[in-house]
Amino acid sequence: AQSVTQLGSHVSVSEGALVLLRCNYSSSVPPYLFWYVQYPNQGLQLLLKYTSAATLVKGINGFEAEFKKSETSFHLTKPSAHMSDAAEYFCAVSGREYGNKLVFGAGTILRVKS
Amino acid sequence: GAGVSQSPRYKVTKRGQDVALRCDPISGHVSLYWYRQALGQGPEFLTYFNYEAQQDKSGLPNDRFSAERPEGSISTLTIQRTEQRDSAMYRCASSLVPSGSQETQYFGPGTRLLVL
Prior knowledge:
Number of helices of chain A: 0
Strand content of chain B: over 45%
Number of strands of chain B: 11
Radius of gyration of chain A: 13 Å
Shape of chain A: globular
Structural class of chain A: mainly beta
Order of helices and strands of chain B: EEEEEEEEEEE
Strand content of chain A: over 45%
Distance between the termini of chain B: 37 Å
Number of strands of chain A: 12
Oligomer: heterodimer
Radius of gyration of chain B: 13 Å
Structural class of chain B: mainly beta
């Protein structure tokens, strides 16, 4: 079974609209969860991470994500999309169950329309 | 400050040749990771080091792949007798402390390998 599932390989939103990128994980114990962003020709950059403190995590560039144990989800949101948000976004999970390495989802490409 | 650097950024090689990919982590970072990313997929773990010790190499696909970090800083990922299926982006990451699961991994720009 997939450890991390990102629903939607491509998401398109209009500038100023809500961004919602979905991530579900499978784990028998609460894991650590991460969102990374990849801009063209650049390395992966951490947006935010959940490490069992507050369930609502705020990250850079106005993004936030909420850990919902009952839904095994960690969806990424931003209230108002900006053209500069166009990139590929990866959800990742880590923890004892994964041998302390990052296990990534397949990624979601976000397109922002003007 | 300097981030993780990788060289070369692009490598084209012929099938059967050996290649060496280099990663220079953030200064002082203890842990170093290698990932491989195929087109349209997320990065997949290959191996990682704490200092110079290789802790986990379970992700290396076969014995043509090897990695070293002899002085606990720069690391080299070597692929022997390359095959076309080895074509991918190879990413390196480092983290400040020995691999706690919650530690942030900082990624380099990657090396794009194309095997003809």
